[in-house]
Amino acid sequence: MSRTATTRYDVAEHLRTPEEMAAYLEACLEEADGDAAFIAKALGDIARAKGMSQVARDAGLSRESLYKALSGERTPGFDTILKVVHALGLKLRAEAPQG
Predict the structure, then answer these.
(1) Which residues contact 55 (CB under 8 A, 6 or more apart)?
(2) Residues 49, 16 contacting (CB under 8 angstroms)
């Protein structure tokens, strides 16, 4: 009997365009239910897709601190989130609920 080889799914491999990255972040924001670490992890996925070193440079952070901040194991400061969102070329926006 042959064994099936499996690989771990990495969403970062599937985030190729700014539109895909924005859609992924929007979906994560909807699913987060107030979990800031979940959002940080989603930003980490997008940063890995773009290249963590470049995102760290653009955000003015060290690569190591960026990995820690976006690991999903801690909640980074809002200033860090804003720097990362800007470095990713994304925008956060507020929207009033419909209905």
Answers:
(1) 47, 66, 84, 87, 88
(2) yes
- The angle formed by the CA atoms of residues 58, 62 and 34, to the nearest 5 degrees, is 80
Closest CA to 10 of 37, 47, 63: 47
Interatomic CA distance for residues 33 and 53, integer angstroms: 30
- Tens of pLDDT, residue by residue over 86-98, are 999 999 888 898 8
Give pLDDT tens digits for 36-73.
999 999 999 999 999 999 999 999 999 999 999 999 99
Phi then psi dihedrals of residue 46, to 5 deg = -65, -40
> Is 8 buried (19+), middle (13-18) or exposed (0-12) by CB count in 10 A?
exposed
